[in-house]
Design goal:
By secondary structure, the protein is mostly helical. The chain has one domain (2-165, 183-367): Up-down Bundle (Growth Hormone, Chain: A), CATH 1.20.1250.20. The chain contains 15 helices and no strands. The chain has helices at residues 2-5, 11-18, 22-43, 46-50, 52-71, 76-104, 110-138, 142-163, 188-210, 212-220, 225-249, 251-275, 278-306, 312-341, 343-367. Helix 6 (76-104) runs antiparallel to helix 7 (110-138), helix 9 (188-210) packs across helix 14 and helix 11 (225-249) packs across helix 13. The mean pLDDT is 85. Its main location: membrane.
């Protein structure tokens, strides 16, 4: 997951080298999400039938191919190809890796398995911009060297996946061909609010991982890649902290309260855009990230507990389809609005829409609380 966000603080350097606009940045980012969604829709249930390890290894191969595209890029075609391959890799990994971690966890760790999976996801996504931002500041050729580091990390992960046991015993119980992802009726009462809260939270992550450097340079007046990488890392670090808090808050309260905290974060980000304040932007990033993490882990936990074991990867993948639609389409909208209305106004409209969705989810959950129970139909 680290490799999927490495380009975030480098977009400014690519813009200088290739001469494209902020709107093109959002398109490059969006094709990554398209790759994720395609992989989830067509192959999200694949590991339920062929096994976790083959799918994880295929995801790592695609990740390495993406890094090679960036390593030898000479223009926009390689950037688009690299992002599509990165998206396909993440699409194979998200639902499969979450299911694998839950299944591999010893019984005494069962309560923490989902946290480990989601924290690895968010931690990897946050580490990418921090690593790339620091390298962009301090190494002579960051557009190449950062992807050499990425290839080394992928190689280590490949060895790690080879060493883990396979958790799918019956590999012939379901069709191996692509099929439409389905959410069983018993899962839907948990799936709908989890998807709504996740949409609001992941739309925020999409904003920070695509146009945050542009906000910093054009609105706040800070163009340092290390700073932009650190700000994006702060969002994901706060998300991980929010996930850790869920154990204390409890699943029932974590989903609505995560949405409340996300609304507060959006208010701070709006204030930062109005006043051009770096402090408020960082505070908003930390607050929104914490709210996203709190509601994200609660949603994944509720959906996982209600899902039948033989369909856990499929249902988890269906949830991630919603989340990656959230991470892409709103960001493209911000890019379009930035061209016509300006980046500041686009950010304010986006923040208002996210806050409205999070507030609506909170009201829905308070009116119709979701009972948490074990998996099965």
């Amino acid at each position: 997951m680290c490799g999927t966000t490495l380009p975030t603080p480098l977009y400014g350097l690519y813009q200088q080298e290739l001469g494209f606009s902020s709107f093109m940045v959002t398109l490059i980012f969006a094709v990554y999400a398209v790759g994720v969604i395609v992989a989830l829709l067509l192959l999200g249930q694949l590991s339920d039938s062929v096994g976790r390890r083959p799918v994880l290894l295929a995801g790592l191969v695609l990740s390495a191919m993406s890094a090679v595209c960036f390593l030898f890029q000479s223009g926009l075609p390689e950037l688009f190809a690299g992002r599509v391959l990165s998206g396909l890799s993440a699409g194979l990994f998200t639902g499969t890796a979450t299911a694998a971690v839950v299944e591999l966890a010893p019984r005494r760790w069962a309560a923490h398995a989902t946290l480990i999976a989601t924290a690895a996801n968010m931690g990897g996504l946050g580490s990418g911009p921090l690593l790339a931002g620091l390298m962009a500041q301090y190494v002579p050729d960051p557009l190449r060297q950062v992807f050499v580091v990425d290839l080394v990390l992928v190689a280590v992960a490949f060895v790690g996946v080879l060493l883990i046991p396979e958790t799918v015993r019956d590999r012939h119980g379901t069709s191996r061909g692509p099929r439409r992802l389905r959410v069983p009726p018993s899962v839907r009462p948990a799936f709908v609010p989890a998807a709504m809260a996740g949409f609001a939270g992941f739309a925020t992550l999409g904003l920070f991982t695509s146009v945050a450097p542009s906000f910093l340079s054009e609105v706040v007046g800070v163009s340092d890649p290390a700073v932009s990488g650190t700000v994006v890392f702060a969002v994901f670090g706060a998300s991980t902290a929010g996930q850790l808090l869920m154990g204390r808050v409890g699943v029932h309260r974590a989903l609505p309260w995560g949405c409340v905290v996300l609304v507060a974060g959006m208010a701070m980000i709006s204030s930062a855009l109005i006043t051009a304040s770096l402090f408020l932007l960082v505070a908003g990033a930390l607050t929104a990230g914490a709210g996203q993490g709190l509601s994200f882990r609660a949603g994944v936990t509720m959906v996982g507990e209600r899902s039948p074991a033989e369909r856990r990867a499929e249902v988890t993948s269906a949830l991630f389809v919603v989340l990656y639609v959230a991470i892409s389409i709103p960001v493209v909208g911000v890019g379009i609005m930035a061209v016509t209305l300006g980046l500041r106004q686009a950010g304010l409209i986006f923040s208002g829409c996210v806050a409205l969705l999070a507030a609506t989810t909170t009201v829905l959950l308070w009116l119709r609380p979701v009972a948490v129970r074990g998996g099965g139909e």
